[in-house]
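Tutorial handout. Part one gives the primary structure; part two gives the three-dimensional structure as tokens.
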Amino acid sequence: MRILLVEDEDRIASFMASGLSAEGHAVERASTAHDAVGMSAAHVYDLILLDLVLPDGGGRDVLRTIRARDTEVPIIIVTALGETDDKVELLDLGADDYLVKPIAFAELAARVRAACRHGQQSSRMLETAELSLDVRTRIATHAGHSADLPSREFSLLEYLMRHPGQVLTRQQILDTVWGFGFESASNIVDVYVGYLRRKLDRHGKPSVIETVRGAGYRVRP
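Part two.
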């Protein structure tokens, strides 16, 4: 999973990031509310871990801002504030879970795994307009025509379909589908988009994947 960790204390952030990285997750850190809002808008994350007390603002405002544009990404609050009223308020604002500091890493890891399972179970069939993707069988269907996708084509289409209408840059796609550090000058994204179009596009129908010139790719919602 690609995780955004919003935490201003270096020691705590290092503890959490190291443990989650060892579990196989890709962790990126924001230490301010401003950075958290900007990074969550610029990149696509599978999970956000959000501290409430930040040097330039409150985590509640960050939560409201993210939820206003993204209702799907799981957000787990990690904070020293543990009153019941705080928990209720934050869950009502759109948080998915709540952990009170100090935390045991085993519990954090379990909550992250639970959020991952919930996300997978809630979206086994992805659908946008005339395009659908069964994430269990890796079969994509467009305008009545189906294709069984190999792993990389499946991962690319799944990533696009989990963010319908959102323009995803080539770098975002490279980082998520091919992994961080992949050569950004490569045209591999364009090549695989071409593979998907040849398999799924139908004559007289709009392409399953739209090119947004100078920006990236998207599927229509």
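Part three, for discussion. The longest helix spans residues 105-121. The mean pLDDT is 86.
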